[in-house]
Amino acid sequence: MLDFFKFQPRLPGLKEFSVESYSTDCSLDRLVLGVDNIRCDVRLSPTFCRTTATLAGLLIERETGIWTSDEKKRIAALTREQESFCESYAEIITDAVNKARAAKEIQIDFLAQIAIISMVHTEIRRQYDILIGHCKTAIRRSDLAAHAEDNKEALKLKENLAHVLSVRETVQHTVGLEICGYFREIRESDIRELREAVFGHDLPFLFDLLANPIVHMDKPDDDYFMIEEYDLCLGRRVEDPDRYEIMLSLLRNIYAYLDMEETATISWSLDRRRRQIAAAELPEDENAKKFQLQRLDGWIKHPPNIDVLLDQNLTKRQYQTLKRERADKETRRRQRQRMKNQRLLMGYFLRQFSRTGLLERICASYEMRVLYGDYCPPLVPQQILQYLINPRSRKQIRNRLKRLKKLYGKTFHLWPLNRKVVQMERLGNRKKKAYLLRFLRAFCRYHRDYCCFSVYREAAERINLVTDKKILALSRTNRTLYEFLLPHEQEVGEKPILNHTVIKADLRGSTDITHQMNERGLNPASYFSLNFFDPISEILSEYDAHKVFIEGDAIILTIFEHEGTPSGWYSVARACGMAINMLMIINRYNKKSQAYQLPILELGIGICHRPHTPTFLFDGNNRIMISPAINLADRLSSCHKSVRRIIRKNVSPFNLFVFQGATDEEMEKTADDLMLRYNINGIELNEAGFRKLSQEIDLKEFYGDIPDLQLEKVRLFTGKFPTKSGRYQRLVLREAEIPAVNPEDLSQLYFTHRKYYEVCTSPTLYKFTKKLMRR
Q1: Rounded CA gap, 416 and 422, in Å?
Q2: Are the C-beta atoms of 558 and 548 separated by less than 8 Å?
Q3: Residue 42 confidence (pLDDT)
């Protein structure tokens, strides 16, 4: 690094040129991951995917010249499919832009475009495999019809197969660019205006990606592809000094050096030179290094910067134009100064590439262009380049060509290569500059396209193009599916779930009841069904509740709130009303059971609200909900045996009591619920549920004594809510502080800052609150 910079006149810095930066910022990091928690689930229009498959197949047949049916009909079909494909693409991209606008997230638009290109890339390869399969099937049929020796048709079919296999990479590349060319044409029209109207800009990266030839290559570093497409011949071996990474590092160092603030006023004392060399190196801090690399690469990825910095001929032509148009003196002076700066920079670039030996390789790579086709194959372009610049390699290459003379049936004359070696030794400085400028333009374009391809590949790997019905249902239900469809494919289904409330009703002593009834020869299953499960099922629709899970002694219900349906945003209020109704049903059936000396049922109910969408999985066609609210509702509905043993007879109008049996330190260490509960025919609502209820309905607060019930310092809340049928139901809730107690005997130690909420069912309390409302 210390001998990197040679003595030179005062160089202009980058700030004296109007260089521009190129951005490849296209991230999907703000989007929701799909069901595999790794990739984003995307569903593209099935109609569009089928049209793409048909179009890709027809284009492949046209490029290979191998038609699977009547050629005229296939060509006519190709024209129709091209029109249909372009129309479908325009509608899908419009849908993507509108969805991105609705969500206020431009990354949804990125997602759609990357997903479409990825689908096209996959479909082209699949259709090519289908064509190969068609050729093989035709050969098998021909072989069955007659012996291969007597069947000229079989020989032709085998030649067709060999041709299809040999041109695969080229055809896939051509077809991919043609299809993406349709995308570019559509994007340049109304779609571009729509995107700019919505987002204010259109990223050049996504537009350039459609013309990026690397995207459609399975081997993007192939020598022939690099020469024909990018006008480059880069080394790939570890020992090659013209590898892509080395070239990029050299250009970064040059740009970093030219970006130094003091470059224009260089003082070539030893100390100053050392400081400038150190300044050109990348910083040690990782974040600063990353930022610096992005800054340098932004300039390198913009190929026109090379002409701005180095193309003296272009600037000279512009100057002559200014003279003819009689531009003002200052404008012409700036143009003359620019030519001078470019001459200095070209000399600097020339020295840096010469001292590393890269200039000779660059000149050789362009000098060999007229010759390499005569020797490749059997050689590769890099071997021709080595022959021109490395005398030690010539003997080995000569011997290789002699050995392969018989195999290829021709003699490889070496005199054109030897003449080219002599010409290179006489290569003038002007031509070297022209070759260097040509190389830098080509390399910057390749670097830009390769970076765009890397960003695309990384984004495509994060996309799961979903077609399986089960995965589609699972992802759509969990609101992790991004769908980009044609207008006639838009489904009007269930609106997205905003949040949910879970009700858990747990039967007390079900094991003992089952044992007692079996001992008496009675049927406990029908008893639970007729007295508990069936009556509750009948009132589900009144509260818009749904069954989540049923087991022998418990039932779990949920009430959803859906987007765009404010009339149904009473999930907590309706859950409380549902719980009260469940206890009323149990009490009614208990009176009947007592008359016939049957066991009575006791419940504990927990209600938990979650301000989030639940997740779902599918067991066949059965949708199974997963939510933390289920576990918490289970805790709220529980009743500790030790607490019930102490509170043998509850004479209070309340049926729920919550105690803290653990220390404050133990409570702080875990997120688990360590509370002790007495819950016999009680209903507990979690704190988040109470806050949500306060938003749903107008809750009136009462705090004070209730002498009729011998209650002191009671805090009650009451309000009404509408059921789904439009009937109004009153709620009464009690807020109480949780006391810290000795778990052995529930003796009170102190009151904590925590609170619990009971949905009351006492008729006396409801009468009392009704009187309060009349005052």
Answers
A1: 10
A2: yes
A3: 94
What pLDDT is stored for residue 5 in this prediction?
46
* Helix boundaries (H) for 301-414: 304-310, 312-324, 329-355, 358-367, 372-375, 381-389, 394-403, 405-408
Amino acid at 354: S
Q: Any idea which residue has 């997602």 for tokens?
A: 111
Helical packing angle, 270-280 and 244-258, nearest 10°: 130
Question: How many angstroms separate the CA atoms of 23 and 17, rounded?
Answer: 19
H or E element, residue 754: strand 747-759
Mean pLDDT of 68-87: 88
Per-residue pLDDT band for 490 (boundaries 50, 70, 90) equals confident
637-647 as b/e: b if 16+ CB within 10 A: bbbbeebeebe
**Which 8-state DSSP code applies to residue 134?**
H
Q: In sequence order, which residues have a C-beta less than 8 Å from that of residue 231 and are 6 or more positions away?
A: 438, 442
Q: Which of 650, 645, 635 is nearest to 604 (CA)?
A: 635
DSSP collapsed to 3 states, 58-98: HHHHHHHCCCCCCHHHHHHHHHHHHHHHHHHHHHHHHHHHH
Cα 272–Cα 277–Cα 280 angle in degrees, nearest 5: 125
Contacts of 187 by beta carbon, 8 Å cutoff, 6+ apart: 93, 202, 207, 210
Q: What's the average model confidence in pLDDT over 636-658? A: 88
Q: Evaluate the CA torsion angle 102, 105, 110, 116 in order and state its sign.
A: negative
Burial of 205 from C-beta contacts in 10 A (0-12 / 13-18 / 19+): buried
CA pair distance 718, 701, nearest whole angstrom = 7
Could you tell me whether strands 554-562 and 497-507 are parallel, antiparallel, or unpaired per DSSP bridges? Answer: antiparallel
Residue 476 token pair: 């759509």
Distance CA 7, CA 121 (A): 50
Look over the chain and give the mean of its residue pLDDT values, rounded to a whole number: 84
